[in-house]
């Protein structure tokens, strides 16, 4: 099959492309390299069945494909908040153009949505039927509301134009290839501990998140795309940790001497988050396989290798 991955040079997108290429698909990647890196795709660059196109999805493009995995959008609060208007454009115009493309060529379309559509959830854990608690004018809104509109567009194209759609609501995902400067919690703590810096816990550290290893997530995306389920379907790991527990686990794993420092909690930071994955279990036969301890080890190994590449002489 000819498969388009938008945002394919990013963290999740590049792992997805590795799986699609290994399954002998013809893969086209669109990326503007805002948070993605060509290095993530180096092994495919000269492959006859791989094409990398530098393109900003806020502009239209014409392509012939059978499936579209639509991932292009910065995912870290630091990046999506640095140009919030662009984040809204990417989610609204970018998703509109990709749905228009899917409609024209009759491709199946999968939206990488997010647990952020639940905002600071009043229901715990979060099932897909929960409509969320999102501040429409806060600093996270460009992303949260952007993704909510992206979901709306996806379902309107489905109802109005019969586009074959899938919506995945992805919960916090981590693993190798996250950027050092990504700003998300796992990459921050790992980079800080490896470089002998204090781990920065925001607020009291009692807020919770549930962390899914990237290989599990990619498996879920592929199963959803190839299922008969429209979704939305939650994809995430239901093992829930406080941020302080995560800090201590990474401290113990990398450097028990590393200190922890407390910094102010950013505005609208959700207090707790944990997916209800019963729909994914029932309809996709999917559940995460990689425990946090194992996923963190893989992540630390990748970060240490990249760090030694950086400091060693050319
Ligand atoms: P990432 O920032 O590593 O990847 C995003 C990719 O999109 C990058 O390669 C970036 O350059 C590209 N991009 C951004 N704006 C673009 C534009 N206008 N045109 C073309 N390319 C553009 O993030 P990620 O963690 O790999 O996330 C991928 C997708 O999954 C995103 O849509 C994100 O919202 C969603 N998601 C991720 C998580 C997570 O925990 N990682 C959680 C929920 C949802
Ligand atoms: N966080 C933290 N220290 C950091 C980065 C993040 O304590 O260096 C906290 C952040 O305030 C939030 C949680 O970790 O409560 C997860 O943050 P992240 O940016 O990874 O994802 P999101 O908030 O989008 O779930």
TrEMBL record:
Residues 4-299 form the NAD(P)-binding domain. Gene3D superfamilies: NAD(P)-binding Rossmann-like Domain. Transmembrane segments: none annotated. The keyword Zinc-finger does not apply. GO terms for molecular function: isomerase activity; NAD+ binding; UDP-glucuronate decarboxylase activity. Residues 262-289 are annotated as: Disordered. It holds the Pfam family GDP_Man_Dehyd. This is UDP-glucuronate decarboxylase. It comes from Acaryochloris thomasi RCC1774. The lineage of its organism: Bacteria, Bacillati, Cyanobacteriota, Cyanophyceae, Acaryochloridales.
